[in-house]
Structure formats: C-alpha cells, structure tokens
Amino acid sequence: MDKKKKNIVIIVTVLVLALLLVGIILTNEPNKHKEPLPELMTDAVLHESNQYAFFGFKINPSLVSAFSVTGILLFVALLLRIFAIPKFKTVPGKVQHVLEALVGFFDQLAKSNSPHYNKLLGAYIFAAGTYICFGTIFELFGIQAMAMSGHLLALPAVHADINAAISMGIMSYSVILLGGILHNGVRGIGLTLKEFSLPISMSFRLFGALLSGLLVTELVYYALSLSFVLPVVVAVLFTLLHAIIQTYVLTMLTSVFYGEVTEPHVKKQEV
Length: 271
Prior knowledge:
The chain has one domain. The protein is mainly alpha-helical. It is globular. Helix 5 runs antiparallel to helix 8 and helix 6 runs antiparallel to helix 7.
C-alpha cells in the first residue's frame, strides 16, 4: 500500500471515530437508569423480578435459554446426521473437517485421561462441552422473549442461573460415579464418594465464572457515561473467553476424575 492510500485510510478511520464519538455524545442520557444498581445486580443473580410464564409456572429466563439451546443443538445434530454425515469422504471437506476436529479433541481428551475405559466418557464430555459452550455464547445473539412484567428481555446464558450450574455439576459427578461402578464396583463407589466436594466445586466454578462476566458487563453499562461501544466489546470478550475456558475446565475435570475411578485395580502379588 502506497503512502497516498495509507493517508486515505487514516483519514477515513479518524472521520468514522469522530462521527461515532459525536453519536455517543448526542444519544447518551447520563444518570438515567431504569433500575437502581443494587436491584439490577440482585436480579442478575436471582432472576426474581424478570420471570417468564411457562404453562402456568413461573420460570427463570435461564431455563428458557436452556430449552432453546437444547432444541437448537438437537435440531442441528439431526440435520448433520441426515445430510452431512452420510456424505463424508476420505478427503474431508470444510464441514467434515470441523466436525472431525471437534469430536477428535474430546475423544483425545477422554483417551489421555482415561486410557482403559473412555467410550462413555468421550460421548459425555462432547455433549457437555458443546452444551456449555453454546449455552454461554447464546446470550450474544440477543434473542428476546416477553417476560411476565410485559417487557421484552434478552435471554441470558444458560449457566448464569445457579440451578443450571448445579445440575451440570451433579450430572458430571453422576457420570463419574457410574463409570466407577461399572468398572470397579464397590471400590469405584468408594473412590468417587471420596471426592464428595467435586460437584460443589464444579457447579460454583461454572456459575461464578459466568456470573462475574455478567456483573462486570452490567457495571460497565451502568457506570460509564459513554457506554456505547465499550460494553459491547467487554460483553463479547468475556462471553467468548468464559465459553472456551469453562468448557475446557469442566470437561477436563470430569475426564481426570473419571480416569481415576475407572483405573483397573491390580492386586500385588505376595512374595
């Protein structure tokens, strides 16, 4: 790129930033918020104010997100099974390459941490990892639903609700316990129950990480007078980082403990 083109690019960039700044100043209404900060933060954790009606029941918005993500993933899986997988070739195309890389990552994770028994583990961590990742990224799409208060609200991440995080922790612990029973019997039960704090640590690690990103984003929206561009950047970065990190952390912990409780017990020979 010659010097003239570089100057044009710089001028255009400066003009765009200047127009953006003018737009922020003209459209910004400082110190006007619908909710006080304490109420906003409390509702972000407990979801008591903004709930949804579901066949006569009051449910948290994260449960709506969970149903939506589950339905979308099952539908996409069905489409891939019908239209994509039967057309797989020896030389993979783009879709096949992405799917094989994704499945291969979780399969290798299962085999490296549980070399003796890993079929159940591989299937579970693939499903759990996919669910956590897309359940977290889901909030970036800004899908709205009508709350009981009459307001349209964007659906949050699935595991921003403590109940969803606890469910995932208990389910992962149950898979570890099942693996221990299938492959080591009573000894496997003992090895699993020894780590009684594991579902608690899994649940609160997942919930705490997602909640911290949510609260930081809310604070940025609330506190900064020029909250036009920065909150968007913060929200996207926190969401993507948490989706990747928490997916890896939970699947890694599950595979490591699964490998421990399913490891074959070798009796020592008497000399």
